[in-house]
Amino acid sequence: MSDLGWPLSVPVLTDGTVTLRAHTPADLELMVETATDPELVRWTSVPSPYDRDDAERFMTDVVAAGWDAGTHQMWAIEVLDAQGRPHFAGDVAIRGRGVSTIGFALHPDARGRGAMAAAVRLAVGEAFSSGYTEAVHWHAHVGNLASLRVAHACGFRLVAEVPALLFEKGRAIDGWHAVLLFGDLMFARRPWRGDTVLETRTAAGRPIRLRPPVETDVPRLTEAFADPDTQHWLVQTPTDSSATHTAVHRWWWRNATGQQATWVVADGEVDELLGQISVLDMLGVDPACGEIGYLLHPDARGQGVLQAVLATLVEHAFAPDGLARRRLTAAAAEGNGASLALLRGAGFVPTGRQSAAEPLGDGTFADLHELELFPGSSRGL
């Protein structure tokens, strides 16, 4: 660390597009805009309301004091605007020596361009190379998708969802936890599954899109989950919007960690949710295998939607530049004739039957039919 005090002690870091530097009074207005953005307020412990005086105190009492005491390193993020002029775009901080935590925030105008991932790589790289720390831990509220995207892109080891990991605004909050170690490559460890948008059409020509799930899907998903037929055949599905939010957050985490690939099935013209489909158990005993799971909103049934979607997903699952699966499995309960017919129509072949293995919504247990599909074989498509 430099013997000079803040701001002269702050090393300037750049990758040619994003620059990390010391904060300046010229940043204060944009700092306030960042701190009062609704998305940032939702996911962080920043005080609310927040004004210019708060930003000034933050610059002197937190940022400058941290550099001078060596307790944390916080940079202003600088990017270029549309006219090529540099301006403040957010903050990134490494807190604590030896074993550290990272925090970051981005002005809304700078989002969606990879600026935060670049800033994190610069800050963590400096903290490692200078000997400031050996490990950087990342924590975020469960559901903070933007932060999870940054951690994934920067190569953090996505460890777990931890109950009551964070205490913010007077309450304990479940959190996601990840860590980056000295020597780790700061790029995604594996693809974010389910991120590829797939297009298809029903036999009648209706356009269908498979896309990543988003929070605005929750109302339609809740309706699909709560449908009596769905509740009968899939007894562990959510029954209210809170549980549906939890399910969507879990899909994001499992897609990011490579455990599964989950898509929303949506109308290709108006983007209304029609259902959901997944390839599950992708890191199981056979990490080149996967299990198909799906459901439809009741108003989308009987229109050939799942037939088109399943054929498209199977092709993507087996493709080397898709999910690169060597085998797919599926299962359906005795009596679920529609699901069994769908799977057999897609080329899945029965392989076995487990007696009284599948719980049903009425409290009974049905036999479970197991099926499988291989690419390019007599049993495949």
Throw out a few tags for this protein:
Aminopeptidase; 10 helices; 381 residues; alpha+beta; 8-stranded mixed beta sheet
Please give the number of β-strands. Answer: 16
Give the termini separation.
63 Å
Please give the count of helices. Answer: 10
Secondary-structure element series: EEHHHEEEHEHEEEEHHHEEEHEHEE
% residues in beta strands: 25-35%
Write down the CATH topology of the largest domain: Aminopeptidase
Largest sheet: 8 strands, mixed
* Overall morphology: elongated
Question: What is the mean predicted local confidence, pLDDT?
Answer: 95
Give the full name of the CATH homologous superfamily of the largest domain.
Answer: Gcn5-related N-acetyltransferase (GNAT)
Give the radius of gyration: 24 Å
Family: Belongs to the acetyltransferase family. RimJ subfamily.
Pfam families: Acetyltransf_3 (PF13302)
Domain N-acetyltransferase: 18-174, 208-372
Protein name: N-acetyltransferase domain-containing protein
Explained architecture:
This protein is an alpha+beta fold. It folds into two domains: 13-181, 3-Layer(aba) Sandwich (Aminopeptidase), CATH 3.40.630; 198-373, 3-Layer(aba) Sandwich (Aminopeptidase), CATH 3.40.630.30. The protein contains ten helices and 16 strands. The chain has helices spanning 28-35, 38-43, 52-69, 115-129, 145-153, 218-226, 228-233, 241-257, 305-318, 337-345; strands at 13-14, 19-21, 72-80, 86-95, 98-106, 133-141, 157-168, 171-181, 198-201, 207-211, 261-267, 273-280, 289-296, 327-333, 349-359, 365-373. An eight-stranded mixed sheet has the order 1-2-3-4-5-6-8-7, sandwiched between helices. The radius of gyration is 24 Å and the shape is elongated. It comes from Aeromicrobium alkaliterrae. Keywords: Acyltransferase, Transferase. Pfam families: Acetyltransf_3. Residues 18-174, 208-372 form the N-acetyltransferase domain.
